[in-house]
User: What shape does this take?
Amino acid sequence: MADSSITRVDVLAKALGKAKYTDDLKFDNMLYLKVVRCPHPHARVIGINKEKALAIEGVVAVLTATDIPGLPCQPKERPILVPEIARYAGDGVALVVAESPKAALEGAEAVRVEYELLEAVFDPEEALKTGAPLVHGDNNVAAQSKVCKGDVEAGFKEADLILEREYNTHRVEHAPIEPEVAIAVPTFEGITVYCPTNSPFQVRQIVAETMAMPQSQIRLFQPTIGGSFGSKCYDAGVLASRAALAAKLTGRPCKIVYTREESIVESTKRHPYKMKYKVGVKKNGKLTAMEVKIIGDSGAYKSKTPFVISRSSIEATGPYVVPNVHTEAICVYTNNVTSCAMRGFGSPQVAYASELLMDELAEKLGIDPLKFRRINGLKDNSLSATGQVMQNVTLDECLDKLEQEIKWSSRKAELKQQDKTGSIVKGLGLACMYRGESFGSAGQGSDYAGATLQVQRDGSITLYSAMSEVGQGGHTMLVRVVSEVLGIKPSRIFVSPVDTCYVPDSGPTVATRGTYVIGNAIRLAAEEVKAKFAEVAAEELGVRPEELVFKDERIYCPGDPSKSISFSRIAAQCYLKSKSPYGYGWWSPPVGSWDREKGQGEAYSSYVYGACAAEVELDLDLGKVEVMKFVAVHDVGKALDKEEVKGQIAGGVSMGIGYALMEDLVVRQGVVKTVNFDEYLLPTSLDIHEIIPVIVEQPSSYGPLGAKGLGEPVMSAVAPAILNAIADALGTRVYDLPANLEAVLDKARAAKGRCCND
Amino acid sequence: MADSSITRVDVLAKALGKAKYTDDLKFDNMLYLKVVRCPHPHARVIGINKEKALAIEGVVAVLTATDIPGLPCQPKERPILVPEIARYAGDGVALVVAESPKAALEGAEAVRVEYELLEAVFDPEEALKTGAPLVHGDNNVAAQSKVCKGDVEAGFKEADLILEREYNTHRVEHAPIEPEVAIAVPTFEGITVYCPTNSPFQVRQIVAETMAMPQSQIRLFQPTIGGSFGSKCYDAGVLASRAALAAKLTGRPCKIVYTREESIVESTKRHPYKMKYKVGVKKNGKLTAMEVKIIGDSGAYKSKTPFVISRSSIEATGPYVVPNVHTEAICVYTNNVTSCAMRGFGSPQVAYASELLMDELAEKLGIDPLKFRRINGLKDNSLSATGQVMQNVTLDECLDKLEQEIKWSSRKAELKQQDKTGSIVKGLGLACMYRGESFGSAGQGSDYAGATLQVQRDGSITLYSAMSEVGQGGHTMLVRVVSEVLGIKPSRIFVSPVDTCYVPDSGPTVATRGTYVIGNAIRLAAEEVKAKFAEVAAEELGVRPEELVFKDERIYCPGDPSKSISFSRIAAQCYLKSKSPYGYGWWSPPVGSWDREKGQGEAYSSYVYGACAAEVELDLDLGKVEVMKFVAVHDVGKALDKEEVKGQIAGGVSMGIGYALMEDLVVRQGVVKTVNFDEYLLPTSLDIHEIIPVIVEQPSSYGPLGAKGLGEPVMSAVAPAILNAIADALGTRVYDLPANLEAVLDKARAAKGRCCND
Assistant: This one.
C-alpha cells in the first residue's frame, strides 16, 4: 500500500506506558513465589528443612520436587525443582509460596537445605578428559557436529600460506528489559499461564508435562513481552511450570517474578566457544582448505546446544568458497550456568573467528581485506562448506554497497595518513556474514507455522498466529504481508494476542524464522481470503476472478476501470452470501537432503547475507574503543517496512557493540560474579555513535513477498568488524572477546613496546 | 465412541458453582451503571437535568444520546439511549455512571427528565387504523408475510364442514436465570466487552456501530451464560453498547447489570398473536382449504419481527397436507414492550392454533384425533403449504411411537369411563409439530457457520467456534461430533470460550441452527483433520489413506489388524513431519427457491417432526390443571447423546407447561404490571410430574452425522397437547392462552352450567 512505513503496531502502547506486561497483571487472592537456589555448582540434596520457613507469617507452602505430579525435569534439562542433584549454582531446589513477596523472600531465606558437595568441572576441555567429574551421562558430551568436504590435507598442500589461530568468545547475558516472570491461574478446566515467551507452545508443553495434564488444558496467554533475544524459551517454561505447580496445589493465582540478580544467576546465556582455525591460502588469495575445531561450553544442561553447535559447524567457514573443509564442533557439559539460544544462535561466534581470520590472511598476503573477501566470497552456483549449490547469493552486492557507503579505499588511505603520535588512533575494519534462515535440514526436524485471518463484516480484519512480538516488529511484519496481498491499509488489521487456546502453532519465534516461516503462513492465509473475495467480486462485477486486482482498498478490473468495488463492500457481500471470510495458512520450508555423518547437503533453503564496516577511535591511554561509525549492509530480500528494517539493524549493531567491547558474564568456580548491571556492562546510548543501515533488496525465492529475516543476522558481523577496525588502529590483534578496556590496553601497551623496540 | 452418554462439558463447573458468569468478574477501578428509563409508553424527551444526579457523591457522569459517537440506534430498533422519542415505558433515556451500584441507583433516581407525552397505541388492530398514533413510519406495519397456495375459495366449496375459530396467544418472558449484564473494559486497542449473548458477532456489530469503531477493535468475550431462550441477542447488544460507551468515555471498566424488575420492564418478549383460522374439511377427514389471518404485536421496535412472522406464516397450517392455503400474517408496531426472538420463534403460536383446530375438527367429524392427524399428516413427497415436496417426513413414525407409549386408544377409553362427578377430572390430548431448521430460504439471508479444531502435539484437542453454550448442550454437541468423526474419546477435546478476537463467525446460536449449521461446520473441520491424519498414518503404516478407519482412539487398517497406530502418536508424527494439525469447517445450508410474493418454494432445507400427548388432572373447583404425564416424541435425526436429548425434551416440556398454564406478562396501557416472579408465575419442580421423552432417529440428509436440532422444537406442541387434554377433560375448549386458574375455572363453570342445563 501507499504508506511505505507505518507505525509499528505494538509500539504506541509501549511508548505511552499503556502496554500490559505480565508483572502489571493483578489477580484476586494472588500468592507470590520465591525460589531457593543451590549455591553450589554440583551437589546432592540430602534434606530440605521447611519448618522455619513455614513458621514465617504469610508463608503458605514450601514446595519441592516431590510435589511435582509429572516430570520434575525433561531429560538432561534444567529441573523445575531439583529432584536430587543440583548441577550449577542457580538450580532451583525449593519454592516458597507466600501471601506477599516479602514473606516469600523471608521464607526462602529460612529454608535449610542440606547438601553433599560433589566434585565439579568448569572447563570444557577438562570436562572431556577421562576421570573428569560427570555432569550428565558417562562422558559429558552434550552434542557434536561435523562438516567434512573434500580433503583438507590435500588442500593444505596446495596452499602458499597456512595460518593457525585460536579465538575465544565469552559468555554473555540476553539482558532483556523485562526479567523472567509468570503468573498461573487455576481454572475449573485447567491452568491459565500468563507468561512472556517466544515459544508459547513449547512452554505449554513443559507445563503440561510437569503437571501431567493434557496440553489442551493448559492455556498459555502471552502478555506484552519486554524483549527476549532468545532468552524467553526454556527459561520461561521453568517459571511457568513453577507458577503452575504452586497454583494447582494452592488453588490460587501464583506469581513468580525474578529480580535482575536472580535472572542473571539462573537464566541461560550465549555459549562461550574456544575455536581453533587452520587455514590454507594461495598467494593469489584463494582459500584452499580450512580445519576448524570448536569446543563450546553447554553449561549444566542440554537446552538448544545440539542445534546451536550444528549451525556453528555449518557456518564456520563464513560466506566463502573453501574447497576442502573439516569442521568438528563439540559442546560439553560443565557445572557452569547453562548456555542456550541467543540472538544469532551459534553464528556470531564463528562469524567472529572466520572474519578475523580473513582479515589477517588478507594482511599477510598484502591484499586489501575487502578485495580478499570478493576473491573468496560465495557467488551464485558456488559450493558452500556443506556442498550446497548456492543461489541468489548477494554477498558481492552487499560489499558493493558497503564500499560505496564507507568510501572504503579513500577512507582507508586517509586513515593510513593519520597522526599516530597522540593518544587517540583511528581504524577501519570490515566483516561479512551469512546465515541460513529457519531451522534448516540439519535443524530441529519439524519446521512449520500456521496463521489465520478473518475478515469481519465491516472489512476490518483480525489476524492471529503464535508469532511472538518480542520487540522485533513481528506483528507489524504480519500486518504488512496481509496489507500487501490484499491491497488494503495496515490500519484495517488487528493482531490478536497469542493465546494457545486459539492460535495455530506457528513454532517458536526464533532462528530467523519469524518473517520467513510465519510470514509465509500469513501470506497463504491472505491469499486464501483473496481468492475467496475475488470470486465474490467477480460475481458482483461480472468478470472472471483472475482478471481482478486488489489495490488501494479496492478490487478492480484493470481492463475496465468502471468495474470496481471496495474491499469493505466485498466483505459485507461475502457474509451476505454466506461465503467464508476466513483464511488459514500453513507453511513449512523446503527441506533438502542432509548427510548428518559428514555434515553435507542442503543445509538451509534460504540464506541472508551482509557486510559491515566499523570505524573506531581508540584511546591508547585508557584502552577505550568508540565505534564512531558503523555501516551495516544487509540483504533483506524485500524491505516490508524500511524504517523497521533500519531500526532492526540499529538495534543489532548496538547489541553487537556490547558483545564486542564490554559485555562479559564472569563465572568463577561455577559462580556468576557479575550479577547486576553495575558489573555486567551493557552499552548505553552514550556508547552508540553513527549507525548507517543500508538495505539490499534481492527478492528471496521463498520468503513472503520476497522478504528475508533480519533480527538475528544483524548481530553476526558487528563484533568482527569492530575487532578488525581495532587491529587496523593498533597494528596488532585482539583475538579473544570482549575487547574491553583491559584487553585493548594490554595490546596497546604491548604494541607500543614493540613499536619502541622497533 | 463407546460411551453413549457423557457428562455435558459445561455442566460440572455450573453444578459446583465454579463457573464464572459475567457478574462474577471483577476489574480494578470498575464503575457501575444504572439506566434512567422513560415511564411513559410514548413521549418526546424535552430536557434532561443531570445536576442533582451529578451532585450525588460517587456519581461520575450522566450520559445521554448526545454522548454516543456513532449510531444511537439501528433503524427502527431500540435505541442505546433515546435520542428524542421514547416509544415504550422502558426505553432508556440516560445512563448514570457511578463508583458504586448504590450511587448509580441514587443518581438515576435524581435525574430529572422532562417529557412531552404523545398519544400512544397498544392494540395492534387499533394501530393499523387510519389516524392511529404512529410508532414508526406512516402505517405502523412492522412486517408482513404471505403464503398462498391453490384456491382457498374452491377449497372451501369442496368442504363438507367449514370451521372458523380465533385463537389468542399471550406475551411471555424468557426469564433466564441470569438477567442481562455486560462489562466493558477500555483497552489500548479498543474495547473488550464481557457479555452473555447468543449472538456474539451481532452484539459486537451493534457496539462497533454505537461507538463508530471498526468491528475488529471491539472484542467480545463470552463468560458462562445463565440461559437465554432467545433473549440475549439485541438486548445484550443494548447493554454491551451502554457499557462500552461509559467505558470509552470514562476510561474505566464499566458494569451494567439488571435487576429482575429492570429485565422484565425493558427486555423483549414473545410476540402475542391474534389468529383467525377458517378451515374446510371433507367428511372423510381430508382437509380442503385453510385461510389464516395473523396479527402480531411487534411492540415498540422491529427486532426479529420480520423473521418471526415469516416462519409463522410458513408453518401456520401445521404438518399437514392442505391443498389450498391462504395465510396472511402482519406484525404491527405498538407502544408496548418489544417482541423479539424466543424459543420456538413464531412456531409455538401457530402450532397452538392449528393443533387446537385439528382436535376440534376431529371431534366435529367424530374421528379419533390421532387418526385425524394421520389422515392429513405430511408424508414423503407430500406438498407443504409452501408447495415444497417434503422428504424424510417422520410424522407417522412419531405418531406410532406416541400411540405405543401413551397407549392412546386404551387410555382414551379408560378416561371415557372416568367418574366425572367429583371435583377432579382427567383428560388426554395430543398435538403434532414440525419446524424448519435454521433460517431457511425465506429467512435472514445469510446462514453460515465457521468452526475450527486444532490437534495439539500430545493428541489433546482445542476446538472453537461462536457456538454459544446457553445451557442447551451446544458445546457437548460439538465435542460429540468431533469425537465421532475422529473415533476418539470426548475427554480429549477442550472447547475454548467464545472470543470474537479468534473464533470464526458461526452466526448466532438461534433458529434450530446450532446442531444443524454449526454442527456441520465442526464436522467438516474434523473431517479435514481426519484426512490430514489419514495421510500421515498411511505413510507410517504403508497403506493407502482410504483403507484406514478411525476408531477407539486408534487409526487402523481393517484388512490387517497388525497395522494400527494410536491417535496420539499420529498427532506427534504430524508435528514432527511439519504437517498441519488444523481443521477449519465452513458450512451453509442449501438454499431453495423462494417466491416472496406468494410465500411459495423450498422454505427450509430440513425439517424436524414431533408428536406429544398430555394427560391432565383438572380441579373443577380451583381451575388448577396438573400435567400428570407428558409424552414427547421427537425425531432428532440421530441422538448424538441420548441423555442430553432427554434433558432437552424435559426442559422444553417444562417451559411449554408454563406457557400453557401460568406464565403471562401483563401489560396495561403500555406499562408492564407483572415485574417480578411473585406475579409472573413460572412453573417450579412441583408443577412438573412425569415427562417421558421418546426419541425417533431417522437420519437427516444434511445434519451432522444425521443429527437434527431440538432445543426450539420441543416447545411447540406442548401447549396445544395440554389444551387439547383440558378440552377432553372439560368437554369444552379454552381458545386463548394461558389456560390459567381463572380461564379454566370460567370454562369449568360455564361447562357445568351447560351440563346442568342439558
In short: The longest strand of chain B covers residues 287-299. Chain B has three domains: 12-118+180-257, 273-441+597-751, 449-587. The two ends of chain B are 64 Å apart (CA to CA).
